[in-house]
Specification:
Length: 290
C-alpha cells in the first residue's frame, strides 16, 4: 500500500470511528455526568495505552516533552470535556457538524501562529463556514427550544485546541513515532484525569447498577477505539500528510453521526442539513485553495 492509499484508508477509518463517537458519548451520559464521563474516558484510555505503548516512551527525547504536554491538553484533555458537555446540551449530529470547524481553525492558527500564507478563496471558505454555523445554531435553537444552544460554543472552542494540536504535531513532532506521542500524551493527562474523577465523586457514587454498567461499556469502547486507536492513526495521518488534510476527516464524520443520530430519534430540518453542507463546502474551499 502506497502512502496516498494509506492516507485514504486512515481518513475513512477515522471518519467511521469518530463519527460514531458522538452517539456513544450520548449513551454514556445516561449513566454518568459529563465531567465523570470525560475523566473516566481519559483514565481508561491512559491505562490501556500505557499497557500497550509504554516501551515506546523511550523514543521520546527531552526536547519533545513540552510539545507532548501542549498536544495532550489542547488536543485531547480539554476537548474531551467540552464535547461531553456539548452532547448533553444539544443533539449529537449537530455537535459533529460543528466539529467541521477544525480545518478552518487549523488554517487560521497556521496563519496567525505558524506564519502560513492564505488566498482569497480560503477567506471565502471561512466566511461560508461561519454563515453555515450561525444558520445551524439559530435554526436548531428555534426547532429545539428545550435545548440550550449556547452549548454549541463548546465544540467550536474545542476545535481551536484540535487546530493547535495538529499544527504542533506536524511542526515539532513529525520525527517521533505516533504511538510514542499518544502514549506520552496520556501519561501526561493521567494524574489530572484521576484527580478530576475523584473530585467528581465517581469512586463514592458508582454502584454498578445496570445503567452505569451500560454507560461504562460505552466509555470503554470510546477509550479503545475513539480515543486510543483513533488518536494513534490520526497522529500518523498528520505526519504523512498535511495538517489541513488530516483535519478534513471532519468532512465525513457528520455523515456517520447523522446516521446514528437519526436511528436514535434525533431530527434535523432541511435548513440544518443545508447549513451543514455550507460548512463543509466552506471547509472544502479552504482545503483546496492552496
Amino acid at each position: 500500500m502506497n502512502q496516498q492509499q494509506r492516507k485514504w484508508v486512515f481518513l475513512i477509518i477515522l471518519s467511521l470511528v469518530w463519527g460514531s463517537s458522538y452517539i456513544l458519548i450520548k449513551k454514556a451520559l445516561l449513566g454518568f455526568e459529563p465531567i465523570t464521563l470525560s475523566a473516566l474516558r481519559i483514565t481508561t484510555s491512559s491505562i490501556l495505552l500505557l499497557i500497550v505503548g509504554f516501551p515506546s516512551l523511550k523514543k521520546i527525547q527531552k526536547h519533545h516533552w513540552k510539545y507532548i504536554f501542549y498536544t495532550a491538553f489542547l488536543g485531547t484533555f480539554f476537548p474531551v470535556f467540552l464535547f461531553s458537555f456539548a452532547v448533553q446540551g444539544i443533539d449529537s449530529a449537530i455537535v459533529s457538524m460543528l466539529n467541521s470547524f477544525t480545518p478552518f481553525n487549523t488554517f487560521i492558527i497556521g496563519i496567525l501562529v505558524f506564519g502560513f500564507s492564505y488566498k482569497n478563496k480560503q477567506f471565502i471558505g471561512i466566511t461560508l463556514g461561519l454563515i453555515g454555523t450561525l444558520v445551524l445554531i439559530f435554526n436548531g435553537a428555534a426547532m429545539n427550544p428545550d435545548q440550550n444552544y449556547w452549548f454549541a460554543l463548546l465544540p467550536i472552542i474545542a476545535t481551536f485546541g484540535y487546530a493547535m494540536n495538529v499544527n504542533i504535531v506536524k511542526k515539532h513532532l513529525s520525527d517521533l513515532d505516533a504511538l510514542a506521542i499518544i502514549t506520552g500524551n496520556f501519561l501526561m493527562m493521567l494524574p489530572s484525569a484521576i484527580v478530576v474523577l475523584y473530585l467528581s465523586g465517581f469512586f463514592s457514587t458508582f454502584s454498578g447498577n445496570e445503567l452505569q454498567m451500560d454507560s461504562l461499556l460505552y466509555v470503554v469502547i470510546l477509550a479503545i477505539f475513539g480515543t486510543g486507536i483513533a488518536k494513534v492513526l490520526y497522529t500518523k495521518l498528520v505526519q504523512i500528510s498535511t495538517p489541513v488534510y488530516a483535519s478534513s476527516v471532519t468532512y465525513l464524520m457528520p455523515l456517520v453521526a447523522i446516521f446514528w443520530g437519526s436511528l436514535d430519534g434525533e431530527k434535523l430540518s432541511v435548513l440544518q442539513l443545508f447549513a451543514g453542507l455550507i460548512i463543509m463546502f466552506g471547509v472544502y474551499l479552504v482545503n483546496r485553495a492552496k
